[in-house]
């Protein structure tokens, strides 16, 4: 498959991640621990997707899944990538818990992450010719990404007002709790 297909697959999946995660948190109906319960299930999903699937692919390709035999440099960089990814996922949940909305939190994440990626990539792998070889458009792109995240945060649409509780809903809630 073409690399662009996979890149767009990631855009689609990560684009709905925050909204789905927020919905899962609310669906836990546990204001104190709902975020952590949702994160636990995210971890289970990662296990299914990022452990079992690669093991099956490696086995199908005749390669070893014995990660402890992998080259140390690749093992530790990959483990570090997983740790910072998981910390980032937890950060998203904590942002939601601090009253951040999916639209704003994810806009900041997805505007800021490419900026961080570009800077760290250049620091790890400096361009041929040094910093002076970097075209001004690159720095403009970083600035525009940051400005775009700020604009989305500042001009986000207001949430619809909460629907009033009807007497039918109140009666149903009272019947569930045994209050009449």
User: What is the percent of helical residues?
Assistant: over 70%
User: Total number of helical segments?
Assistant: 6
How many β-strands, per DSSP?
0
Question: Cα-atom Rg, whole angstroms?
Answer: 22 Å
Q: N-to-C terminal Cα separation, in Å?
A: 62 Å
| Main sheet: strands, sense, barrel | none
Oligomeric status = single chain
Please provide the ordered H/E string of secondary-structure elements: HHHHHH
Overall mean confidence score, pLDDT? 86
Shape: flat
Class by alpha and beta content = mainly alpha
Low-confidence stretches: none
Q: Tell me what portion of residues adopts beta-strand conformation.
A: under 5%
**Number of domain units:** 2
Can you put this structure into words, describing what you see?
By secondary structure, the chain is mainly α. The protein folds into two domains: 15-100, no CATH class; 102-156. Helix content is 73%, strand content 0%. It contains six helices and no strands. The protein has helices at 3-27, 34-60, 72-97, 102-124, 136-154, 167-177. The model has no long low-confidence stretch (mean pLDDT 86).
Throw out a few tags for this protein:
single chain; 180 residues; mainly alpha; 2 domains; 73% helix
């Amino acid at each position: 498959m073409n690399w662009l297909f996979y890149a767009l697959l990631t855009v689609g999946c990560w684009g709905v991640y925050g909204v789905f995660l927020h919905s899962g948190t609310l669906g836990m109906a546990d204001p104190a621990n709902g975020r952590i319960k949702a994160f636990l299930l995210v971890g289970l999903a990662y296990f299914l997707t990022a452990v079992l699937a690669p093991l099956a692919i490696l086995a199908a390709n005749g390669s070893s899944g014995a990660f402890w035999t992998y080259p140390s440099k690749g093992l530790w960089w990959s483990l570090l990538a997983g740790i910072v990814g998981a910390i980032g996922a937890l950060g998203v949940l904590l942002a939601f818990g601090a009253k951040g909305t999916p639209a704003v939190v994810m806009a900041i994440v997805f505007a800021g992450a490419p900026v961080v990626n570009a800077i760290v990539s250049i620091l790890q792998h400096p361009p041929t010719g040094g910093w002076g070889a970097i075209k001004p458009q690159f720095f403009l792109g970083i600035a525009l990404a940051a400005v775009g995240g700020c604009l989305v945060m500042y001009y986000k649409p207001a949430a619809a007002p909460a629907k009033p509780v009807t007497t039918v809903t109140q009666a149903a809630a009272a019947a569930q709790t045994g209050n009449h």
